[in-house]
Amino acid sequence: MNAPWKPGGGPRDPFHAYVCDDHSFDLLRAVAAELGWAPEKVNKGGMRNAVQSLSITASPQILFVDMSESGDPLNDINSLAEVCEPGTVVIAAGQVNDVRLYRDLVASGIQDYLLKPFGADQLREALVQAQAVFMAPRDAGPEQPHCTMAVIGTRGGVGASSVATSLAWLLSEKKKRPTALLDLDVHFGTNALVMDLEPGRGLTDAIENPSRIDGLFIERAMVRASDTLAILSAEAPISQPMLTDGGAFYQLLEEFRAAFECSIIDLPRNMLIQHPHLMTDVNVTLVVTDLTLAAARDTIRILSWLKTNAPQTRVLVVANRVHTGSPEISRKDFEQSIERKVDVLVPFDLRIASQAAKLGKTLAEAAKGAKVGAALTGMMEQALGAAQVEDEPSAKGGKKGQSLLGKIDFRAMISSRRKEKVAQED
Questions:
Q1: 249 and 204 in contact (C-beta within 8 Å)?
Q2: pLDDT tens track for 216-225
Q3: Which residue numbers delimit the Response regulatory domain (predicted)?
Q4: N or C: which end of the chain has fewer CB within 10 A?
Q5: In the predicted structure, residue 410 carries a pLDDT above the cut 50
Q6: CA–CA distance, 322 with 326 (Å, rounded to integer)
Q7: Are 271 and 189 a contacting pair, CB within 8 Å?
Q8: Distance in angstroms (rounded) separating the CA atoms of residues 264 and 364
C-alpha cells in the first residue's frame, strides 16, 4: 500500500482500539500486550468514540475499530476517514456476515474486516499483517504519464457515446489502467445508462459547488462500474439550465489526473464553443462521424477548430455505424472531402447493438469476437499509441497519483490534499 506519509514524519502511537463489548476489550488488551503495545490504548465505545477521540488526537499507526453498533457502516467509515491522518492502517470488526459489505469496506481503504466473535489467533494474525503493511516500503513503482482522451461526435446519432464508453471499458479491462469516464452531456448523457448504472448527482453537485471538488469529492461522487473504471455523469432536470463558466469541469479533470491513469471525456460538440479550455490538456481526440454529407461538413469544421485551438492533441477520425451496403458517401469520397484518411471504421451490427442495450453492457464488451469488437479494440490501440507517442510527463498532473479504485491506505492521498487545501485557504 502506498501513502505519502513516511515513518519518521512525526510521533504516532503504534496502536489504538475502540471496541463495544467486554470480551473484545479483554482479548485486544491481552494481544496488544503480547505485541509490545500499551493495553491502555484499548478503549470502549466503538466507532462513535473512535471518531470523537481521533478528531482531537493524532491517529495511530494501526487502528482497530468495532462497528457492531454502526447503523450505516460505509458512511461511518467515511466519517472516520475525515479524522484519520494519512498512513493509518485500519482493521474493522463487526457482526454482519456479508461479502458485499466486506468488499465495500476493503475498497474504502480498510485493511481487514473481522467477523465477531473472533479468536486470539485470528486477531493476532490481523494485527501482525497490519504492522507489516505499515512498515512496508512506500515505493510508488514506475510512473507513466496520465492520458486524457476526448470523444467528440460530429452529429447527433453518430454513436460518440457508444465509442466513449467502449474506449473506457477497453482501457480499464484490457489494459487494466484505472480509468475515469466523464460524461459532459449533463441533461441527456447516456454513459451511465449504457452500463446499467444510476448516474447520481455527482456532476450536478460539482457544477453547482466547484469549491467542493477535491480527491474526497471525486471518490464519493463517481459511480464505480468496475475495480478499474469509474463514471461521473448526470441526469439533470431539463428545466434546470447548467450555468457555469466551465471551471468545475477543468477542476474535475485536474483531480482525475491525480487519481487515475486515463481520463475519457464524452464531449458534446457544443462544448468546444462554450468551454474551449477543456481541450488544453487532451492528448488524443477521437472525432466520431458517419459517412454522410452533413457529417463530412462538420468533420471538416471540427478538424479545423482542433488544429487552431488544440494543436497539441493527436486526432483520430472514427467512422462509426458504417453499413455494409452503399453509404451516403463512400469512404474514398469522404476522405477526399475532409482531406485526410479515416483512421478507424466500425461496422454497424444491429444484433450486437441491441444485445448490448438489453444486457446493460458497452458495445465493446458485447461484441467480443465480432468484427465490431475487433474494430473497437483496434481503435483503442491506436488511441493509446497516439497518446504514448508524445512520451512526456504530464505538465500539470506531476507524478501519477494513486488510483481511487484500489486501496488507498485509508484515504492517505485525500487527507493530505485536503490539509493542503485548508492551508492554502488560510
A1: no
A2: 888 888 999 9
A3: 16-131
A4: C
A5: no
A6: 9
A7: no
A8: 15
